[in-house]
Write a structure and sequence with these properties.
With 210 residues, the protein is mainly α. Helices cover 57% and strands 0% of the residues. Helix 1 (3-16) packs parallel to helix 4 (66-77) and helix 2 (25-37) runs antiparallel to helix 4. The chain is globular.
């Protein structure tokens, strides 16, 4: 399904679907790494199962760029039950993910699921803060600019944007952002892809810990 059509379809589903389950930083980071490092549907479905997801995901296409695949799967994940949904950390709900996806698609000139440096600076991050405080917004803006200076040719996918929103919101609201462990995530994905017969329940503690 073309991304624009997908977002329009999702917009309708939002109003008739179930209550938002949400996306945590860990969940966003886990599936971001999955989509960038693995491109076979068997591993994708296996990772979904090993995340406590019972619903089938039917919109995966190798014709899409990894960035577009991320937009689609994030919109799917935010509305389904997953291990770790009960964590007391900052989350994005269905409506927020839809808004971020729509703005991302609008700003993304090449429609490839990536924002170039100039596009990234045009994203309206402050639309997704529950409460705006000048001090923390200043900290956030400096953080964004630091990324741009540190990585001159920065290209951001939708997960990078969502993680930025969650990090700033946690600062503003004095709440938990969540724990990210890149090595643990890579090791877990390797185990999921390499051990097809391992019980999915084995990975439940990993998702609930982070």
């Amino acid at each position: 399904m073309h991304l624009k059509t997908f977002l329009m379809f999702f917009s309708v589903c939002f109003f008739i679907g179930t209550m938002s389950i949400g996306l945590t930083a860990h969940q966003i980071n886990f599936f971001q790494k999955l989509i960038w490092e693995y491109d076979d549907i068997e591993t994708i479905n296996r990772a979904l199962l090993c995340s406590g997801i019972e619903e089938n995901y039917n919109d995966y296409s190798l014709e899409d760029t990894p960035g577009v695949r991320l937009i689609k799967i994030m919109n799917f994940l935010v509305g389904v039950e997953k291990w770790g949904d009960n964590k007391k950390v900052e989350k994005l709900n269905i409506e927020e993910v839809k808004k971020i996806s729509t703005e991302f698609y609008t700003i993304d000139i090449n429609k490839n699921g990536h924002l170039e440096k100039e596009e990234f600076t045009n994203f309206s991050f402050n639309h997704y803060f529950i409460e705006i405080k000048e001090k923390f917004c200043d900290i956030f803006e400096k953080s964004v600019m630091y990324d741009l200076i540190k990585v001159p040719h920065l290209r951001s996918d939708i997960c990078d944007v969502m993680l930025k929103v969650l990090k700033c919101r946690a600062l503003i609201n004095n709440t938990e952002y969540g724990k990210l462990d890149e090595k643990k995530t890579s090791d877990t994905l390797l185990s999921i892809s390499g051990n097809k017969n391992k019980d999915p329940e084995f990975f439940k503690s990993y998702h609930e810990e982070y």
